[in-house]
Design a protein that fits this description.
Layout: E1 3-4, E2 9-10, H1 21-29, E3 37-41, H2 47-55, E4 59-63, H3 67-78, E5 86-89, H4 93-99, E6 104-109, H5 123-129, H6 136-146, E7 147-158, H7 162-171, E8 175-183, E9 192-198, E10 206-211, H8 221-227
Parallel strand pairs: 3-4, 3-6, 4-5, 6-7, 8-10
Antiparallel strand pairs: 1-2, 7-9, 8-9
Helix pairs in contact: 1-2
């Protein structure tokens, strides 16, 4: 069943990774600012690219390796109000970086991050959820090559992986300008981190927290506020 946002619809039946809370929060909490060109690295069904299109006037390129997800993303782009500004490329990010002459003000990604966990028997799900074709180190290296001077990289990862990824990022001269720690409910440990990296070390890293559910397991006011421009939630 299609996922209906306020201004666009997402079909994700052919993608191995359907629309989820991680992408919703990443798209909602990433500010495209005055970006003129944005890249969605590993677009899946295209939800992040569409959220950036709604929030900006930028030209948005999306890269995705999985054939089913490419079909979903292409269909979703064509049926959106911003089809003239959206393009999906069905190739690896590494090949895209080799072929393109473009550089980006903002790169956004919900990357595969289950690098050490048990692999699924289904190859397509492995490719979507694990770093089999693109490790985090390769992603950061490629992002650095695709960013304009002064550009930003916004992504979401499991909180426990952030210390390791921070070191990898700094090896590529990418530094955290913003960190948002995502908690599933009050009293729990942070489950995700949304990180925004820049090429120059910031004078100070902005840090914030967002809790998805209240004590009664209903969506928190912070979550509702963050996502209000995209979909209506019935509590």
């Amino acid at each position: 069943m299609p996922f209906r946002f306020k201004q666009f619809t997402i079909e994700d039946s052919r993608s191995m990774m359907p629309v989820g809370t991680d992408s919703l929060l990443l798209g909602a909490l990433t500010d495209p600012g005055q970006a003129s060109r944005i890249l969605d690295a590993g677009t899946g069904c295209g939800v992040l690219a569409l959220m950036m299109a709604q929030k900006s006037g930028a030209i948005i390129d999306a890269v995705e390796l999985d054939e089913g997800a490419v079909l979903d993303a292409t269909e979703n782009f064509e049926q959106s109000p911003w089809s003239s500004r959206l393009a999906c490329f069905g190739i690896s990010l590494q090949l895209f970086a080799f072929l393109t002459d473009h550089r980006y003000d903002l790169i956004i990604s919900n990357p595969p991050f289950f690098s050490d966990s048990l692999k699924s028997a289904e190859r397509r799900k492995n490719l979507a959820r694990h770093d089999l074709t693109l490790t985090m180190e390769e992603l950061l290296t490629t992002v650095q090559s695709l960013l304009k001077k002064g550009g930003r990289f916004s992504f979401i990862i499991p909180a426990e992986q952030w210390p390791k990824i921070r070191k990898l990022a700094e090896n590529q001269h990418l530094y955290p300008a913003k960190l948002i720690y995502i908690y599933p409910y009050p009293g729990a440990r942070a489950k995700r981190v949304i990180a925004e990296l820049t090429q120059d070390p910031p004078a100070q890293t902005y840090e914030a927290e967002l809790t998805i559910l209240n004590e009664d397991r209903k969506y928190s006011s912070d979550y509702l506020e963050a996502t209000k421009e995209f979909h209506k939630i019935y509590c």
